Each structure stands twice: as structure tokens, then as C-alpha cells.
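Justification of computing resources. Each target in the renewal requires a structure prediction run like the one illustrated here; the chain below, 143 residues long, is used simply to show the kind of job we budget for.
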Amino acid sequence: MTREPGTGNRHIPINVLFVLGVVLVVALPLLVGVLVTGFLPDVGTLRAGSGWRVLHLLWIYPTFVVLLFLLVTPVARAFGRATHPASGVVAELGLSWLLLTALLQVYFEQPGGAAIAAAIALAALGPFARLLERTAPDDDTRP
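Resulting C-alpha cells:
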């Protein structure tokens, strides 16, 4: 018994769904930052547009992560080696905030709204980072 052409099941590979799910879950703190800031008077004025603008979160977080590892982290580590290790952490946090502020300009008419949303989003991303560090396997364990 042969199947007719075009009647087969087409499944999305599980890896694609997994990556998309991770991006959606991690984009939630960014969405929280945008929504909370959107309710602030004068500062949180959102740009007029359709609801499709929310889909920008799907490219903002991956772009943020790539630029964080390619640009921000090496600069902050070099600054920390040149001065004090704690200043490297402060520099990394400050540069991350500036980068996320620039990426969130898509949503706000004023730069202050993007800056506040970036601060809220970074504060909301903190628990995710702690959870990932806690549940990550040790480097010494072998499968």
C-alpha cells in the first residue's frame, strides 16, 4: 500500500520548536519591561503601530545575546582586568543596559522610555540567569 503524493505528514523538527520556545520564554522579561514602561505617563509613550510590533521581541533577544558575547563581554573583561574585577561587572551591566536601550527604541517615542524598559527587562532577566546557573550540569560530569 503506497501513499499518495502530498498526503504525508510534515513535521517541524523538534529542534526548531525547541529553539523557538526558548526565544519566546526568554523574551517574556523584555515584554514585561515594555508593558510596564508603556503605562508610565509621559516617558512610556509607545509608538503608534499594529500589534505585529510585538514580534520584534523575537529578533531583539537573539541580537542582544550575540552582541553581548561578541562585543560587551570582551570589553568588560578587559576593563575589569585593567582596573578591578568588580568594575568589569559594573561595566558589563552598564554596556548591556545601553545595548538593550538601543534595541528597545523600536517601541518608544522617547529614549527615556527605552532606557527604563531596558532596566526593567535586565532586572527581570536576573532570575532566569540564576535559574540557569543553578540547573546547569557541572563541567566535571561526563554523560
